[in-house]
Amino acid sequence: MKKKLSAMLCGGAIAVASVLSLVGCGSKHKHTSKWCFDETHHWQEYTCGHTPEDDKKSEHTYSGIQCTVCGRYLPPENSRVEIGDLAYYWNPEVNGYSVYVKSFVENKAHIQIENEIQGYPVTDIQSSGFAYCRELESITIPDNVAYIGNSAFYQCEKLSSVELGKGVTSIGSYAFDSCYSLTDINIPDSIESIGGSAFEYCDMLPYQTYDNAKYLGNKDNPYVVLLEGGKDVKSCTVHENTKIIYIRAFSYNTELESITIPRGVREIGESAFSECSSLTSITIPNGVKRIASNLFFNCSKLTSIKIPIGVTSIGLGAFTSCGALTSVFIPDSVTQIGSYAFDDRRSLEKIVIPSSVTHIDIFAFYHCPSLTIYCEAEKKPEGWDNSWNIDECPVVWGYKGA
Domains of the chain, with CATH numbers? Predict the structure, then answer.
């Protein structure tokens, strides 16, 4: 069996474990842990989003059909293969085959997906690939599959059992939406992201509870995903084995004052703490790589937060209406700040934007009457929208620190 895809892609990039720094963009160029590649060369992705110069790229080194460095596969001779009711097509974006059902499977109760085709991995369930297979009752997804596409099993009304392989990292939005009969699904510890409404109307799913919160997981770890926090609770301790806090998990819990998040959490979904108007402080674990959109929207009593080194983006409206925050530290791993990220921050007095930030969207700093912005860049980078500072808060360019 060929080397299994076990990490995230960048275009067609496979993650490996290394972080390097080079002189470049601003003060230093930093690599992420991802390999990117084209047909002839591979390179490590820069955190700033820039593409390295050609002399920083290396030619592929193949052993058989796979590059031993970045993991790229040579394209197969057969780009489309049909086996039974299923069709597989070569998808360079996922560095493997994507699979979908050729036509509605009216009388098929169980489907078995191939783990590999002619030595190449099957890595992706195509978006809507099995949607409306209303007679489907169970499916086994092999270990090579990393991605479950958007609406992949939408409205499979009789689907009751899903066996996810150990390599699944991403479940798309609406993936199992309206699977009314779903009573058994294992979420592997490898999971890194789950899209919105992935389990909408799956009302028969059994949940594990811990400290008033609902979880999904697997036999060995029932607490992989915190789906819903307890309502009307003043505090919550997330289980130590949790990997994901799901979208809107604690939203509108106006009683929540504090939460303890373990180090193993790697993803906190959009709006997870929006409208938690009593929340005063929170510590985000180092494994989290993004501050999701509207994550702390209208957390009006939030006075303390530390964005960990390793976070690369701050999403749309992430800190909107967090009126009690007077300062926020942005680490130099951040490359993007979304629209309205710091909207309506009337107590915010100072913020330092590191030179690593190459993109700032419209109205990122809006309704911040007390704010002075300190930028390490000497002038506005090209990737910053012209309306990034629409209220014309005072800006200090070329800031070198206190």
Answer: 1-74 (no CATH), 80-194 (3.80.10.10)
